[in-house]
Amino acid sequence: MNKQPLINFIQNNIQNIKVSEEAVLTISEMFEEREFAKNDFLLKAGKVSGYFFLVDGFMRAFTFDNEGNEVTTYFYTKNRVVFEPASFFMHQPSTENIQAVTLCKGYYTTFDKVNTLFHSVPEFREFGRLMLVREFVAYKQQTLAMINKSAEERYADLMNTNKEIFQYAQLKHIASFLGMTDTSMSRIRKEMLKK
Amino acid sequence: MNKQPLINFIQNNIQNIKVSEEAVLTISEMFEEREFAKNDFLLKAGKVSGYFFLVDGFMRAFTFDNEGNEVTTYFYTKNRVVFEPASFFMHQPSTENIQAVTLCKGYYTTFDKVNTLFHSVPEFREFGRLMLVREFVAYKQQTLAMINKSAEERYADLMNTNKEIFQYAQLKHIASFLGMTDTSMSRIRKEMLKK
DNA sequence: AAATTCACTTGCCAAATGGCAAGAAATCAA
DNA sequence: TTGATTTCTTGCCATTTGGCAAGTGAATTT
């Protein structure tokens, strides 16, 4: 079982600290290789989130608003840690679903194991904090753009900064992610073609 | 110098762990009592965020969008930790400002000191993670509401869940926080009075 | 207390976005 | 390959929200 991609990712995401051989081994043991077929769920609403390092594939998080409409809250591309912080760290049932959009490969673990690593491997603790902070920062930037930008600007921004999303995700999912209807987004696309 | 409110807050926010006397002392030493007069800045854009436990008062975070409009990104009520996670944890200049809306009292410290505490006091490490997770969760819920809710619903939601914000904040700041113009919000208020 | 500034409201109209339903296109299943 | 299902687009019109500028009222300064 080759966990090198996982080790490399962790190593690359801690500044100034070389992960010791021992730590590498301890970490490796706690993760298991896992695949998700297209449309399989990494996380279902009501369950507690796990921790998944996505080596290859594309995932989508979504929930439902008051009127029962599906709302896409996030897209995950490869070389990212995929988890729902609220559920994972608070051990609470998730309100979100996370689903494989394409075939997904990576390494999976649970809160208990992550917690063990947090207590026993300082390097991993740093790594965990960095992942959390990174999620937060990314999320904040994304949402700041939502405020005080028009639907068209939001669409253009996503096109420029996250082109790979358009490669994998359905347009209606991108639309709800951007806080607009698929109808509106379709019109925006039409307008932008003209230019 | 009485740091009991700080200790109590930390104690109350770690599950299942009693903070030792020694830890209490170590933590206390790292924080200094601090006051912010009305309109004073806890954080200015371009500076690196500190860490402030707000014992009493009300604060507001804001930044500017592409067109130069001020956008309120957050309100902080008492008994909360006030900091900008992106800047604080990544040691990067903040894009946000945090300003005292009323006279504010609390305990202040820097990244280096928090880091020292993270490494030397496990209880504080847990506390720090909980604060970060809590910020993230709160932020996520807030922004989820922004998507797929009308301006009127967003206003009503905030009224129901965070009434104290209306006690202290200016209406135009609440409006930009809710992602609408002050003009629109004024009209919404008028409509809601009728009911 | 008067002058000045700032926050908020309101009327008028324009622009952006949504809702619905029908049709076209793409995808999936047999 | 064909039929069925799903996704995406489009036309028509309604609704929501914004922009501007004037007006009111409250707070602050001198």
Structural overview:
The structure is a homodimer of 195-residue chains. Chain A has 195 residues and is of the alpha+beta class. The first copy, chain A, has one domain: Jelly Rolls, CATH 2.60.120. Chain A contains nine helices and eight strands. Chain A has helices at 4-12, 21-30, 85-90, 111-120, 122-146, 151-161, 163-168, 171-177, 182-194; strands at residues 32-36, 41-43, 51-56, 59-64, 70-76, 80-82, 97-100, 104-109. Chain A is elongated and about 55 Å long. Chain A starts with a helix and ends with a helix. The A-B interface holds A 63, 65-67, 69, 71, 73, 85-86, 89-90, 125, 129-130, 132-133, 135-137, 139-140, 143-144, 146-149, 176, 179 and B 63, 65-67, 69, 71, 73, 85-86, 89-90, 125, 129-130, 132-133, 135-137, 139-140, 143-144, 146-149, 176, 179. The structure holds a DNA duplex (30 and 30 nucleotides).
**Whole-number average pLDDT of chain A?**
91
CATH topology name of chain A: Jelly Rolls
Oligomer: homodimer
Radius of gyration of chain A over alpha carbons? 18 Å
Q: Helical residue percent of chain A?
A: 40-55%
CATH architecture of chain A: Sandwich
Count of separate DSSP helical elements of chain A? 9
Question: How many strand elements of chain A?
Answer: 8
CATH superfamily of chain A: Jelly Rolls
Q: How would you characterize the largest beta sheet of chain A?
A: 4 strands, antiparallel
Instruction: Output the helix-strand order of chain A.
Output: HHEEEEEEHEEHHHHHH
Strand order of the largest sheet of chain A: 1-8-3-6
Judging from the principal axes of the Cα atoms, what is the shape of chain A? elongated
Terminal-residue CA separation of chain A: 50 Å
What is the SS-derived class of chain A? alpha+beta
| β-strand amount of chain A | 15-25%
Largest chain interface and its two residue counts? A-B, 29 and 29 residues
CATH class of chain A: Mainly Beta
Poorly predicted runs of chain A are none
